[in-house]
Amino acid sequence: MMATPSLVTSACVLSVxxxxxxSSGMFISNLSETCYRCLCYVSTECNTAxxxxxxxxxPFNISRVYWIDAGKVTLPEDDPERNHAWEDCARSxxxxxxxxxxxxxxxxxxxxxxxxTDCFDYMMVNGNGGYGCTVPLNKTHNGRRWLRRYQDCQxxxxx
Length: 159
Hints:
The protein is mainly alpha-helical and 159 residues long. It has a single domain (33-158), classed as Lysozyme. Helix content is 55%, strand content 4%. It contains 7 helices and 3 strands. A 3-stranded antiparallel beta sheet has the order 1-2-3. A hairpin with a 2-residue loop joins strand 1 and strand 2. Helix 2 (33-44) runs parallel beside helix 6 (119-128) and helix 2 crosses helix 7. The longest helix has 20 residues, at 5-24. The protein starts with a helix and ends with a helix. GO terms for molecular function: lysozyme activity.
């Protein structure tokens, strides 16, 4: 019996998705809207009016290097080679979410060693950078502020 073309196509698509997930090193389906809101809150208390300060832009406080590592995501119809494309994307909540997703696809992992890659790990990646996420955040003033804000966000979700 010969398989139908639609069945073969479906199987191929599923295989590609499974291979992509395995090769990317992580599956970020648990990067929910709630997690984005907490990551945003940790960064700037989710101040969507936050412009650029000291080389960090938007409600997620994204740097140009972070944007490059994330794959140079831009607003629709923008050119990643345009001088301020990264700033414009980082200042847009929805575009910035795509930057965060790209960065976490590249660097996201289980930073605290609990066997689960979750929003806390993503917060540690954003706080310590892609290669340093296992460093405890409570070691620095800024890290302690991030932890406090993350805890506040988690409590507000449960309330």
